[in-house]
Design brief:
This protein has 296 residues and is of the alpha/beta class. The protein has two domains: 2-149 and 279-294, Rossmann fold (3-Layer(aba) Sandwich); 167-272, Rossmann fold. Helices cover 37% and strands 18% of the residues. It contains ten helices and ten strands. It has a six-stranded mixed β-sheet with strand order 2-1-6-5-3-4, sandwiched between helices. A four-stranded parallel β-sheet has the order 8-7-9-10. Helix 4 links the parallel strand 5 (109-114) and strand 6 (142-146). Helix 5 (153-165) packs across helix 6 (191-202) and helix 5 packs antiparallel against helix 10 (279-294). The longest helix is centred in the last third of the chain and has 16 residues, at 279-294. It starts with a strand and ends with a helix.
Length: 296
């Protein structure tokens, strides 16, 4: 059996994975004579911040317009977020359970589109789940995983241009724009410095930092001081303006970016708009989904 990942066929060895059977009724299996049933699964980290998921709705709208009549479902990779939402009456599946349900319902092929920003640990975990489940009994025979937002050089260029174009028009030429990414110890953290290069090609006062990686908020502050900038628009370099944007970026806590910059005499203007809310950014994910769908 094979799994398609970013245009490559990967032979899958038998794995011990019974999620396809977990809490699901028995299904007769895939018949060679049965017509193909194709679905789309959109996968992201998730958010429990009220209203922050409007970016997800924007992407879903674009996907449904591109593939009218096709089943589109969601899965959140964060167990903590799923549990929080469950207490509020909103039930979201993990990627494994979502794929298991689709297999149980007779889907023979599924395009799994990652809505992560970079090909980091969460994306790799998603690919591993898809590998383990593809073609297993009761699971979709074929699972294709679409690239996250930033993978190819053209992705970075398009994303940088789209995000700069979405900065509030009130911004003046001497104001900075600080983009706050999540950051990771994973090798994929290199995409943040790479995005910094793309931003600088278009705007020397656009600065990238991360919450848990490099560049850090101290690096951001050093850049602002070196440029003698006294005002900065704070923008999440994340799919949604969720907890990190409201707390780490713009919160009132002493270690928030807004507080750190304020102590340095730099005024801040938070922008609560995630990347998924920007149509031009959403089209990058949509293009990656199209590439995945072509293999189905």
């Amino acid at each position: 059996m094979f799994l398609q990942v970013r245009g490559k066929s990967v032979r899958i060895l038998p794995l011990v994975l019974v999620l396809c059977l977990l809490s699901l009724p028995a299904w007769a299996g895939h018949s060679k004579e049965a017509p193909a049933k194709v679905g789309i699964l959109l996968v992201t980290f998730g958010t429990s911040v009220a209203g922050a998921d409007k970016g997800y709705a924007q992407v879903e709208k674009m996907v449904r317009e591109a593939y009218p009549g096709m089943e589109v479902r969601w899965a959140y990779t964060s167990r903590i977020i799923r549990h929080k939402l469950a207490k509020q009456g909103r039930v979201l599946d993990s990627p494994a359970l979502a794929l298991a349900r689709m297999g149980d319902e007779g889907f023979t092929a599924v395009a799994v589109q990652s809505l992560h920003m970079i090909p980091g640990e969460e994306y790799e975990d998603l690919v591993s789940v898809a590998r383990a489940m593809a073609g297993q009994s009761e699971c979709p025979e074929k699972i294709v995983v679409g690239d996250p937002l930033l993978v190819h050089p053209a992705d970075l260029e398009r994303a940088a241009e789209a995000m700069l174009d979405s900065v509030p028009k009130e911004r003046k030429p001497g104001d900075a724009v600080v983009f706050m990414g999540h950051g990771t110890p994973h090798l994929a953290n290199v995409f943040y410095p790479a995005m910094q290069v793309e931003f600088w090609k278009k705007d020397p006062n656009a600065i990238v930092g991360t919450v848990e990686g490099s560049p850090s908020v101290d690096d951001v502050l050093a850049q602002l001081k070196a440029r003698k900038l006294r005002k900065a628009y704070l923008v999440p370099l994340m799919s949604v303006a969720g907890d990190h944007a409201h707390n780490d970026m713009a919160g009132e806590e002493p270690d928030s970016w807004a507080s750190v910059l304020k102590r340095a005499g730099i005024a801040t203007v938070p922008v609560f708009r995630g990347a998924a809310e920007i149509e031009a950014v959403g089209r990058i994910w949509l293009d990656h989904l199209r590439a995945a769908m072509e293999t189905l």
